[in-house]
Structures are given as structure tokens and as C-alpha cells.
Specification:
Elements: H1 3-13, H2 24-41, E1 56-59, H3 60-70, H4 72-97, H5 101-172, H6 178-213, E2 221-224, H7 236-245, H8 248-265, H9 276-337, H10 343-375
Parallel strand pairs: 1-2
């Protein structure tokens, strides 16, 4: 073996330890100047104004409370309730003060419609609150996942930076073509640019959260999201029946059918402004709508259930992969201790370990949200 080959082998084993001192004297003043310029020119983005260790903690419950206060939809439901109650009171007054049979029949029909609308308003308000909570949890999850993805990207870039130092030394020793080294540098630079888009994505997600909870758009938080991974135990048929039984949409259509049928029963050809035939057609249309809506809900519930079960299978597979990696940790550390692998090799392995843990965490949070959506009345 040539002397240069032996030297190359030593560099592989010790992560090219020579690079720590390689060119330090030659580049010292250049690096010093660059550092001074970087400090002088650095601009801190608006979203970085808060130090990570000083960020305000924000829990899901706190965010949901703020979101309920800020939600135009919830306020609109409240306004509609007040209007319906006022109209209902007026209608009852008109009914009791009227002595005309035709007018009384008209008031009875309108009272039934208003009572049905008031009941639907209350049910829709409750569902809107539950959906808003799930929306907030989704926002928390997306931000936390994006932050974790950014951390993993930083770890990957740090490893690549070490590899580039080694690649540069290989090139200078004649063991790598400059074109190959330049290609690696270009790839690294592109990933650094992509990292910037990840940061922008996180900023945009915080903007969406702040808009939802009614706060200034530039605020960032230390989000506190606690979820539990529990595989669902009940059958698909149970969940389908649960979704159908608790559907606000179906309940609303049934109320409309009841009102429509009452109109048919109370129809009086002498005073009614509508024909009995037209009223019967309205009932038939509503019943067809009920049938189709229930079919669609059955399909949605089954699809949601199957998605959850697929996540549970995927979770088992990913946990097995993590267990396989765990079983190699002690061996890899021993290999490093014996000098058979480099620290960079161990760091690369631990990066895979970190990626696998995040993959499992992501599945667990998504599973939690999907189960919550399936098992919360009216939100599927």
C-alpha cells in the first residue's frame, strides 16, 4: 500500500482530523473579516424577536378559548339565535292575538319552522365549537411538525457540512474530482435555500393560528400539545352507526321532514296558499335527501375508520423499524470505541434514529386527531 493510500485510510478513520487545522493560518484573517462583516450586517427577522426560551406557552385549551371568542361563525350563530327567539316570541303573540282560522294555521306552520330552526341553530353551534377545537389542534400539530422537520433538516445539514469538509480534503489530496465536489456543494446550498422555505412555512402557520385566536399576526409561541396514542377498539359498524346517530345534518333534515309532514296533515284547501300535492312533493324530496345524506355519511365514516386502522398498521411497522435501530446503538458505539467507524458514521446513524422517532410521533398525532374527529358527534 502506498504512503498516500495509508494516509487516506487514517483520514477515513478519524473524520479527517487534519481539517481542524487545515488552512487555519492561511484563512485566519479572511475568516475574521467575514465574521465581523456578518455580525455587522445581520438582520434579525420579525419572527425571531422573541427568544426561544422566553416564548409564551400556549396550550390547546387556551387557544380554543381565544378562538371561540374571536370566531365570526360562533358570533353569527349567537346573533341568529337571538333573532330566531325574538321572531318566535312575536309569532306566538300574533298567534294568540289572532281569531282568524287561516291566520292561525299560517302562524302554526311558521312557529314549527322557527322552532326547528332554533333547535338546528343550537346543534350547529355545538358542532362548530367542536370543529373549531379540532382545527386548533390541527394548527398546533402542523406547526410542531414543521418545527421538528426544521430541526431534523438542521441536523442533516450539519452532517452534510462535515461530509463537505472531508470531501474538500479528498479533492485537495487528489482523491475526488473538483466537479464532484462542486456538485456536492451545490446540493448543500440548495438544501440551505429549501430550509428558508421551511422557516417561511412555519411563519405562515403561526399567522393562521393568530388569525384563528384573534391575536396579532406576528406572534409566536411555545405550543403545548399533549396527545395519547390509543388504537381504536370498536368495530367499523359501531362507528358508522355513531356518526349517523349524531349527525347534525341528518337531524336537521329530519326536523324539516317533520315540519313538512305536519303541513300536509294540517292542509286545508279552503285557506292554504299551497296545494297538498306540492307539500307532499316537498316531503318526498326531503326524504330522498335524507337517504342520500345518510349514504354519504356511511361512506365518510367507513373511510375515516379505515384511515385510522391503516395508521395503526403503519405505526406498528415504524415501531419495529425503530426497535431494529435501537438494537444497533450499543454495537455502533462499541465500533466507534474500537476505532472501526468514525464519529461521523455514528452521527449519521443517530440521525436515522431521530428521523424514525419523528415519523412515529407524526403518525401518533395524526391518529389522535383522526380518532377525535371520528368520535366527536357531528364532526365527521
Amino acid at each position: 500500500m502506498s504512503q498516500s493510500a495509508k494516509a487516506m485510510e487514517k483520514l477515513d478513520l478519524f473524520d479527517f482530523f487534519l481539517i481542524e487545522g487545515w488552512g487555519k493560518l492561511k484563512n485566519f484573517f479572511g475568516k475574521l473579516l467575514a465574521a465581523v462583516l456578518a455580525i455587522a450586517l445581520i438582520q434579525v427577522p420579525a419572527f425571531a424577536a422573541q427568544e426561544p426560551d422566553k416564548l409564551e406557552e400556549l396550550t390547546v385549551d387556551q387557544a380554543v378559548s381565544l378562538a371561540l371568542q374571536a370566531s365570526p361563525e360562533i358570533r353569527n350563530f349567537g346573533d341568529s339565535k337571538e333573532t330566531l327567539e325574538e321572531n318566535l316570541d312575536t309569532m306566538y303573540d300574533d298567534y294568540y292575538s289572532s281569531y282568524d282560522y287561516a291566520s292561525k294555521l299560517r302562524y302554526i306552520n311558521q312557529i314549527m319552522e322557527l322552532e326547528a330552526s332554533l333547535a338546528k341553530n343550537g346543534e350547529n353551534t355545538n358542532v362548530a365549537k367542536d370543529k373549531l377545537k379540532i382545527s386548533v389542534i390541527n394548527l398546533f400539530s402542523s406547526i410542531i411538525s414543521a418545527q421538528r422537520s426544521l430541526e431534523i433538516t438542521d441536523d442533516s445539514l450539519a452532517l452534510t457540512k462535515k461530509e463537505l469538509k472531508i470531501a474538500k480534503l479528498r479533492m485537495e489530496l487528489g482523491y475526488m474530482a473538483k466537479s464532484d465536489y462542486d456538485a456536492q456543494v451545490a446540493s448543500y446550498d440548495q438544501r440551505v435555500k429549501n430550509r428558508e422555505t421551511q422557516e417561511i412555512g412555519i411563519q405562515n402557520a403561526f399567522i393562521s393560528l393568530n388569525k384563528t385566536i384573534g391575536r396579532s399576526l406576528d406572534r409566536v409561541y411555545d405550543l403545548q400539545l399533549y396527545t395519547v396514542y390509543e388504537p381504536i377498539q370498536k368495530t367499523s359498524q359501531y362507528h358508522i352507526e355513531f356518526v349517523v346517530a349524531n349527525s347534525v345534518e341528518l337531524a336537521g333534515i329530519r326536523k324539516d321532514i317533520d315540519v313538512a309532514k305536519m303541513k300536509v296533515e294540517r292542509h286545508d284547501s279552503l285557506v292554504s296558499t299551497e296545494t297538498k300535492e306540492s307539500l307532499e312533493k316537498a316531503v318526498a324530496q326531503l326524504e330522498r335527501n335524507l337517504y342520500e345524506t345518510e349514504r354519504n355519511l356511511n361512506q365518510k365514516a367507513l373511510s375515516a375508520y379505515n384511515t385510522i386502522k391503516n395508521q395503526e398498521i403503519q405505526h406498528e411497522v415504524e415501531v419495529m423499524k425503530l426497535d431494529a435501530l435501537k438494537s444497533q446503538v450499543a454495537y455502533k458505539e462499541k465500533q466507534l470505541e474500537l476505532g472501526r467507524i468514525t464519529q461521523l458514521s455514528l452521527d449519521t446513524f443517530m440521525y436515522q434514529f431521530e428521523q424514525q422517532e419523528e415519523s412515529i410521533r407524526s403518525i401518533e398525532v395524526s391518529h389522535y386527531i383522526n380518532v377525535l374527529t371520528l368520535t366527536t358527534p357531528g364532526t365527521t
